Each structure stands twice: as structure tokens, then as C-alpha cells.
């Protein structure tokens, strides 16, 4: 089972897409003691991978203490905007054995990247190079929108040129600051065309780099894909122990430091998500493997609505 752990809500950038509306001033970091207690509580349940996110995790002066504690128990990766990565940090990541680093990119066009990701293109490229120089696996993380959907081949080529290990595509999320950019979200037909184009590229070009598609309906192109993992093999936890269905769903299910995890895991909300009682998706023959993206459903204000990015009914 995977857990996404948000170690802070603070960030040094103010990206237009930020799903959680990160705070970029007056840093007042959450207690390291509490975070270590959360990690130890996670070790008591069936977790094998921890994905550290923020905000920007490297703003925390104690981030290496957090990674070290996580590495005692789990495969550990971290998601960053790359702006704070220097040679010393890259070497420390290698020394403590981080299993992978994911860096956010917007476009191969620096102007587009900088417009939506707060002038961070050069630092993202530099971070990727520094971390790869330490032989750490690096993933390029792409938030797909109308700005960059036509740039996906160039993004794959850039990832290959930087000698990265993988590239991940996922849809623009309609939450946080992203809710103000709904006009940039792909509709269901545009999403279907994008997924089909990626599939054809992979089939024809057979790229050496790994390509991950965080779209539940990708199972219709790749039968090895897993669809939505929420409530099955994935959940999220905040720095204070609050448990969320996933990092994109701002719904508190309970607190791992105060509540019984089995009761949380068997809550009515997660049971209903597992049963796929979700709008039009409920009648779809692919619902148990796909399930639609619940954070995308929030575009209509209800996680049990149909996924508006899916064209299959």
C-alpha cells in the first residue's frame, strides 16, 4: 500500500495549478516530533511506500530527518519543484538512500513553464541534472492542460535528454488555485485524444524511458494499469496525522494518531468509493478497474459524480 505524506503546506513558489493553494510566506513549520510519530504509526499498518510531498518539502530544515525516519520502514520518494536543490542536497539525498525524486515540469517552453510555475524552469532542469549526477532515479511530473497537451512528445524527449528515468502525466486538478483554471482543463474528448496519442507514441516509438499515466481510464489502453487506487492501495496523510482519501481530495477521514486506522479504512465514504457508486460511472462496464478520478469529480462539487474527463459511459 502507498501513502502520500504532506509534510508542509508552505512553498517558496506560487504556482497557478497548486491543488492545495500552498502558503508562500511567514513559514511556521509543523512539529518534527509529530511527523515522526505519524511515520511510526504508518509503520504499524500495511504500508510499503511513502511519497513525501508539500508544499515544498525542502523548505523544511529537518527534511532529512524525516526522510531518514521514513527510510527505516518504507521505500521513500519525494516530490519537489526543484528550486531549492543544490549539489549538497543532492549528495545528501544519495547518502541517505532516497529511492526517487519527482520534479514538476510544465513545458519544454521555458516561458510557459515560468508563467504557471513561478519562474522555476531553469531551477527544475538544474535540479534534475544534479540529482541524476548522484545516480538517484528522477521522474518528470507533468500536470496536463490545454497549455501543454500538444507538447507531450517534446517533454518525453526532454526527459530522455536529461537522462531521467520516467515521466508522469496527470490531469490538471480542479482544487486549490487550480479551481481558477478550469478553462485550461481538458474535456472528455480532448482527454481521450491525448491518451490515444500517448498510446500510439508508446506503441510506435517504444521509448526507453518509463511513461506513467495517472488517468484511471488509461486501463482502456493498457490492461496492466490499475485505475483509481483510492481506498484500495492508496491514501494520504498530513503532517498532523489527518488522513485524506488522496492528496487531491481535501476530505478528512480521521487522524492516524487519534483514531483506529481500520475504522477509517472501513468508513462509509471509502466503502462507497470501492463499490463505485459514482454517477454515470456506476453503469460503466469498466467501473471496478477504472472508477474515474474522484478529485476530477469535485469539479461538479461531489466526489461521487462522474469523472468529467472520461468519455466512456
Automatic annotation (TrEMBL):
Cofactor annotation: [4Fe-4S] cluster
GO biological process: heme biosynthetic process
Listed Pfam families: Radical_SAM (PF04055), SPASM (PF13186)
InterPro entries with a match to the protein in the record: 4Fe4S-binding_SPASM_dom (IPR023885), Aldolase_TIM (IPR013785), Elp3/MiaA/NifB-like_rSAM (IPR006638), PqqE-like (IPR017200), Radical_SAM_PqqE_MftC-like (IPR050377), rSAM (IPR007197), rSAM_sf (IPR058240)
Keywords: 4Fe-4S, Iron, Iron-sulfur, Metal-binding, S-adenosyl-L-methionine
Molecular-function GO terms, alphabetical: 4 iron, 4 sulfur cluster binding; catalytic activity; metal ion binding
Domain Radical SAM core positions: 1-206
Protein name: Antilisterial bacteriocin subtilosin biosynthesis protein AlbA
Organism encoding this protein: Methanobrevibacter oralis
Gene name for this UniProt entry: albA_1
